[in-house]
Amino acid sequence: MPLIDVSIARGRTPEQLRSLINELHQAAEKAVGAVPENTTVIIREVEHEHWSRGNQTIAERSAAAK
Length: 66
Hints:
Elements: E1 3-9, H1 14-32, E2 40-46, E3 52-53, E4 56-57, H2 58-65
Parallel strand pairs: 1-2
Antiparallel strand pairs: 3-4
């Protein structure tokens, strides 16, 4: 019963998120023989102001790049 929990920066379309869910389900089936009905995928979208790397948020990097 795989539980796949993904955090991703907010900004993807519903179609992109749906595609990600599908690919994750397929990967679980292929890698460990998971049954689709028993596989759970959770996608957590994180605001750009709440995600940082190297002490700089995504929002700050985007602003600096402009």
